[in-house]
Structure formats: structure tokens, C-alpha cells
Design goal:
The complex is a heterodimer of chains A (about 80) and B (about 200). Chain A contains six helices and two strands. Chain A is mostly helical and about 80 residues long. Chain B contains seven helices and no strands. Chain B has about 200 residues and is an all-alpha fold. The chains are: A mainly alpha (about 80), B mainly alpha (about 200). Chains A and B meet through helix 4 of A and helix 4 and helix 5 of B.
């Protein structure tokens, strides 16, 4: 298992653990999508997209895979431990 | 399946709360004077029905939420349950020691205290994750107006029938400023959002 998958993908508890860095905002920008557009494609709320982009919430493994597939990249490319 | 939106939740919650108020003011008082025990029991538990509907609504809302929203809901419910458990323990021990004399009717506060604690913790968690605790896609202003009008109608009918005792009249005068404050806060938030967009 890669280093990126060994970190807590189940969601960071408030105030604990270092956040993962991710490229979601950049990738979304490249597509010209708003947070609401991405949220609709991922079937999550806009606030969840915002929390992921700002590193306040680390997505679950299924959602991380969904994000990776949507942008046509591997999870390790998008998410990396800080 | 379409997501159960915050707007749908709030609409249905508003109606349930109006039904609860109506049951509390128009039906529940009849339980005091009901002749037969089965009728007394039936009338006494009528206000619980809209609350059961609210619990069902909450379950549906949590079930339809995404993973972060579910996390927030469940953390908030866990914290609310822990707080309620702690308060019950303190109250129970003080009552057993003879410091307090708690009546059984204090159990009526279990659900409201749980919901208030849940709301407060959820508000804090949503802010922690960088979101807004307000509903997406619209202002609840009109719903508050509807709620205020319906509550006042219910109270008016209750008053007209002469069923309001001192407690219920106090509730009427207590609710009016509360609803007014909610409307003012809602209006202020709406104006601030409009100002931020400009």
C-alpha cells in the first residue's frame, strides 16, 4: 500500500492529526468548475468540497477514488501526506 | 435517488413544529379532564406524534447526507447524548441525596435539551470545517414568517376556546419575542449576504 493510502483517509478528527495536502482545487480550476459543479459530480455537498480543498477534511477511500477517477489521476497524485 | 435537501427538511420540520404546538395547546390540556384512563393516555401522548415524525425526518436527513455531513451529525448527536447523560446523572444523584426534588415531568425536557445541544455542537463543527450552518439555496425567512403566523393562529384558537391556562399564556408571551428575534436575525443575515454579493 502506498504511503498516501496509509494515512487516515477516514476523515480527520477536529483538531487532531496533520491534514493531507491535495490538488483538488487546482484540478477543479483546470476544468473550470465551481465548487458546486464538483460537488454535483461527486454527489456531495459544496461544503464538503470546500472542506476537502482547504485540508480541513480528508475524504474516505471511496470518495478519494471517486475524485481520482473524475480527474483521471491516481490517488497518490492528488492526495499526499503533509 | 434525489438528495433530501436542507430546504425540504426545514419545510417539513416547520410543519411538524406547528402540529406539535397545536397538539400541545389544543389537545394535551384535554388530557387533564378526560374521564377514562385510555382516553387520558391517548390525549397525553398526542404531542409525541409530531416529535416522532421529527425524529424520522432527522434519520432521513442523516441518511441522505454525504460522509462529512454524516460525520458532523453523528458527532453532534454523540456529544448531545453525552451531555444529557451527564446532566441526568447529576440531577439523579442530587435528587437521591435530597438536595433537589425533581418531578417526573422533567423528562419532557430530555428531547429539547438533546436537540439544543445537538444544534449547538453541529453549528460549531460546521464552522470548524469551514462551512455555514445556514441552509443552502435559500433564506429561511419566509418559513419563519409562516411558522410565526401558524403558531399565533394556533394560540389564538386556543385562547378563543378559553383553554389557555397561566402556563400557556406565558408560553404565548414568551414565544412572541423569540419568533421576533429569529425574524430580525434572519433579515439581518439576508441583508448581509446581499451586501457581501454587491
Amino acid at each position: 500500500m502506498s504511503e498516501a493510502l496509509r494515512v487516515d483517509l477516514g476523515g480527520r478528527r477536529p483538531g487532531t492529526g496533520p491534514p493531507m495536502k491535495n490538488q483538488v482545487r487546482d484540478l477543479r480550476g483546470e476544468q473550470g468548475w465551481s465548487q458546486a459543479d464538483l460537488a454535483e459530480r461527486l454527489d456531495v455537498s459544496r461544503q464538503t468540497v470546500n472542506a476537502i480543498e482547504t485540508g480541513k477534511y480528508d475524504p474516505s477511500l471511496p470518495l478519494a477514488f471517486k475524485i481520482a477517477r473524475l480527474f483521471g489521476q491516481s490517488i497518490e497524485t492528488i492526495f499526499e501526506p503533509d | 435517488m434525489a438528495r433530501f435537501t436542507e430546504k425540504q427538511y426545514r419545510n417539513q420540520l416547520s410543519l411538524a413544529m406547528v402540529a406539535y404546538m397545536a397538539a400541545m395547546l389544543l389537545v394535551w390540556p384535554l388530557s387533564r379532564t378526560a374521564a377514562s384512563v385510555p382516553l387520558k393516555v391517548l390525549l397525553a401522548v398526542v404531542p409525541v406524534l409530531p416529535m416522532l415524525f421529527v425524529i424520522g425526518l432527522m434519520a432521513r436527513r442523516i441518511g441522505a447526507s454525504d460522509e462529512l455531513e454524516q460525520r458532523v451529525h453523528l458527532l453532534a448527536l454523540g456529544a448531545a447524548t453525552a451531555l444529557l447523560g451527564a446532566l441526568s446523572l447529576v440531577g439523579g444523584f442530587l435528587d437521591a441525596a435530597g438536595v433537589l426534588a425533581l418531578r417526573g415531568s422533567i423528562l419532557i425536557w430530555v428531547f429539547p435539551v438533546t436537540m439544543i445541544s445537538y444544534g449547538a455542537v453541529r453549528w460549531w463543527l460546521v464552522r470548524h470545517y469551514g462551512g455555514s450552518a445556514g441552509c443552502e439555496g435559500g433564506s429561511p425567512g419566509w418559513q419563519l414568517c409562516l411558522l410565526a403566523v401558524l403558531v399565533l393562529m394556533v394560540l389564538g384558537v386556543g385562547w378563543w376556546h378559553g383553554r389557555l391556562d397561566a402556563f400557556e399564556k406565558g408560553l404565548l408571551f414568551g414565544l412572541a419575542p423569540g419568533v421576533l428575534i429569529l425574524l430580525v436575525v434572519s433579515l439581518w443575515r439576508r441583508l448581509r449576504r446581499v451586501a457581501d454579493k454587491d
